[in-house]
Amino acid sequence: MGSIKWLKPIKTRPNTAEKTMLEEEEPLSPGARLFHTPQFNCCIISIVGSKTKVDIEVIKEGIRHTMIKHPRLSSKLVLDPKKGNKPTGWIRTKVNVDDHIIVPDLDPNLNSPDQFVEDYVSNITKTPMDLSKPLWEIHILNIKTKDANAIGVFRIHHSIGDGTSLMTYVLACTRQHANPHALPTLPTSKKTRRVVSPNDVRSLGLLGLFYGMVFVSKMLWNTLLDLGLFCATALWFKDTNTVVKGGFGVGMSPKRFVYRIVSLDDIKLVKNALDVTINDVLLGMTQAGLSYYLNRKYGEIKGEGVARKNNLPKNIRLRSTVLVNLRPTSTIEVLAEKIASDSTKRWNWGNSIGYVILPFHIMLRHDPLDYIRDAKATIDNKKQSFEVVCTYAIAMLILNTIGLWMNAALSYRLLSNVTLSFSNLLGPREEISFYGHPMEFVASSVYGHPQALTIHFQSYWDKMTFVLAIDQDVIPDPQKLCDDIEESLKLAKQAVIEKKLFK
Predict the structure, then answer these.
(1) Predicted TM-score of the model (pTM)
(2) d(Cα 111, Cα 117) in Å, to the nearest integer?
(3) For residues 266 and 493, is the Cβ–Cβ distance under 8 A?
(4) Closest residue by Cα to residue 143 from 135, 152, 156
(5) ∠ CA 217-377-449 to the nearest 5 degrees?
(6) At 371, is the secondary structure helix, strand, or coil?
């Protein structure tokens, strides 16, 4: 099964340029160095559901033809014994795909396959990656779960690249299921930016100049406020110690990954009704879900049950970090061309990451749509700020003047003082196949950073999957939090229909 006729034959003899690349050492980027410090030994986990049983040999052959052509996926770390075996760079190596594909011998009649997958992925986080080979692996579990007929688990060290770039590269190795020769397509914004002509400027006159000054002033003011909050958080300003906030050492503890699949059409219905973005809806869903969850937990603590009575402490400060990669990401088409051409040129790759701190409004709202309106206001303010650029510049300044140890210490303190991490990644608009295997869902997250909760949204085709990466000692009932986030979408959809806001 799983035709891969569109792939070019693999070359068996490297040319001179390839030999040179195998011998050259490339230094680690600042972001890669950060992800190899003890405080941030981060890995990306991606759980992929397949509609069919996985043919192991077809997967291996496909990877040999495509995935390992990327320099980062075919390079291992250079360790300096004089510096305690600290990583100093990358060097190309010949990849034995068999060393990276892990296929456990499983009982096909497991009593609870979904629980087995959850436990299996959690156990992966307890095992460090082998630094003697390229830092990626794929676990294939040929068992049927409630959502798929087989499961693949990708683990990739975060030093290889940011989530968006890695996802784009993996998609360049896939094809549309309905058209095996066509690359996947990603959603694009329908809004077009009109070019302002000199006549437009003259017609606006003093009014246009005034509005321009107001806009610039707001950008500068928001940036100053955001930077002040960022610096205070990195030094001493902490979130409220709620039941979802981790304590010291939480980054080193094993993580458990739970996911839930909801309808992307339902999200778009709410989005269009309120004239907001999908990010606004997702942030609003998360705010609502966390509010419901915390209200229940504090009700249980007070012994007052789980009713909608307001059990929340006053003035909860709960914030999220959002990591934004500033390096331009190549398109799927460009990456696919590089794979097909066996390009030996250096790829524009690496982690160039800035921070954004998002405040969450934790409260009980009478109108579930108010959570989304709050989220829109928050995101609009962040759009009118240079926070992400400035935080990246501050990190680079500290790295170049004081050193990596201070950069890591301040980053660790920043994330420790904030409750969770939040992210959203756009996936393909159509069903895709990974070397002939049609994919049912994609659920991605990360572990290794000092937070007990990470919430990641991933769109795919007509679905939206959200994943919680949690420390079970802090959040022992993650499925209930999933229920609350899912319920928040149902309530928002119901409100849109009852108020006849849909278009």
Answers:
(1) 0.88
(2) 12
(3) yes
(4) 152
(5) 100
(6) helix
Report the residue count for the chain.
Answer: 503
Task: Say which range, 1-15, 37-51, 218-232, has the weakest mean pLDDT.
Answer: 1-15
How do residues 34-90 score in pLDDT, each as one tens digit? 888 888 889 999 999 999 999 999 999 999 999 999 889 999 999 888 877 888 899
Looking from the CA of 195 toward its CB, the CA atoms found within 13 Å total 2
Strand order in the sheet with 175-176: 101-102, 136-141, 150-157, 43-50, 437-447, 432-434, 175-176
478-498 vs 278-302: helix crossing angle, rounded to 10: 120
| Active-site position among 70, 158, 177, 449 | 158
410/306 Cα distance (integer angstroms) = 39
pLDDT tens digit sequence for 395-440: 889 988 998 889 889 999 999 999 999 999 889 999 999 999 999 9
Cα separation, 134 vs 87, whole angstroms: 13
Tokens linked to 381: 């303010």
Q: Could you write out the DSSP letters of every residue in 306-321?
A: TSSS--PPTT--EEEE
- Residue 100 annotated as catalytic: no
Nearest Cα neighbor of 422 from 351, 325, 320, 324 is 320
Backbone angles phi, psi at 142, to 5 degrees: -85, 70
CA gap 413, 277 in Å, rounded: 31
- Give all strands of the β-sheet with 318-325 in edge-to-edge order: 256-263, 463-470, 453-460, 420-425, 318-325, 353-360
